[in-house]
Specification:
The structure is a single chain. The protein folds into two domains: about 140 residues, Fructose-1,6-Bisphosphatase, subunit A, domain 1 (Fructose-1,6-Bisphosphatase, Chain A, domain 1); about 100 residues, D-Maltodextrin-Binding Protein, domain 2. Helices cover about 35% and strands about 25% of the residues. The protein is built from seven helices and 14 strands. The strands form three sheets. The protein has a seven-stranded mixed sheet with strand order 3-4-5-6-7-8-9, with helices on both faces. The radius of gyration is 17 Å and the shape is globular. The model has no long low-confidence stretch (mean pLDDT about 90).
């Protein structure tokens, strides 16, 4: 498994960098390719990035399953699942903001074993491997040790974060889920909260970034987080019980 994990990481990091170069090249002239409704859409850059990543994974690991945001793919019977967001932070990207990136994760029998998030315009490459820690540009990072919820930044949308009844200056919505999770792993945020719905693409890589940095992730009831979970709480661990109590007292 260790040899396989190393190979998965090398491929994921290479593809994240290649896709980022493609996305940067397309950014000045990128346009909406698929309108999903309700303000959600895919750009031509999303599609191109996904095509690049899928082609390489299928070539090297044709028996592996793949879950990706922009396309539906036939399920195969494999213990390995690649979870991909070819362009995380599409709205930021389309408005020329640097808060976007490429997410690639590998799951084995339902558990994340590799996660990569690359934000090229921030020059930040995050990666984590199960049992090996989380790294930013090759340097190991850790969650913070903050125990005071009133002194912590929280990532997520305003609608979700309002349930905590926290002061507005503590709330941060970067418009890029995996970047917020990376900031939990890095110790910049105390937590990232999603009350409802699943987001396997943002949390696929982000979940292992947080846990390998010493944090924890559960659903909103405190149960083990899964790709299909309805809602997710990722934190430094020390704030987790208080966050869950606040959320469940107001729900």
């Amino acid at each position: 498994m260790q040899e396989k994990t190393s190979d998965f990481l090398k491929l994921a990091m290479r593809l994240a960098k290649q896709s980022a170069k493609l996305l940067e090249r397309m950014q000045p002239h990128s346009h909406i390719k698929v309108n999903k409704g309700a303000g959600d859409y895919a750009l031509d850059a999303d599609i191109a990035s996904e095509k690049l990543i899928l082609s390489a994974i299928r070539k090297q690991y044709p028996t592996h399953d793949i879950l990706t945001e922009e396309s539906k793919h036939k399920h195969v019977v494999s213990p390995y699942l690649w979870v991909i967001d070819p362009l995380e932070g599409t709205l930021n990207y389309s408005h020329k903001l640097p808060l976007w990136g490429v997410n690639i994760a590998v799951f084995h029998k339902g558990e994340p074993i590799v996660g990569v998030f690359y934000a090229p315009q921030l020059k930040e490459l995050y990666h984590a491997v199960k049992g090996k820690g989380t790294f930013l540009n090759g340097k190991r990072i850790h969650v913070n040790t903050q125990t005071d919820i009133m002194k912590s930044f929280f990532g997520g949308t305003a609608k979700h974060l309002s349930s905590l009844n926290l002061s507005g200056h503590l709330l941060r919505n970067l418009g890029c889920c995996c970047l917020e999770l990376a900031y939990v792993a890095r110790g910049l945020f105390g937590a990232r909260i999603k009350l409802h719905g699943s987001d396997p693409y943002g949390y696929g890589a982000g979940s292992i970034l947080v846990t390998e940095a010493g944090g924890m992730i559960t659903d909103t009831k405190g149960k083990q987080w899964k790709l299909s979970s309805d809602g997710a709480i990722a934190s430094n661990g020390k704030l987790h019980a208080e966050i869950l109590a606040l959320l469940n007292n107001t729900s």
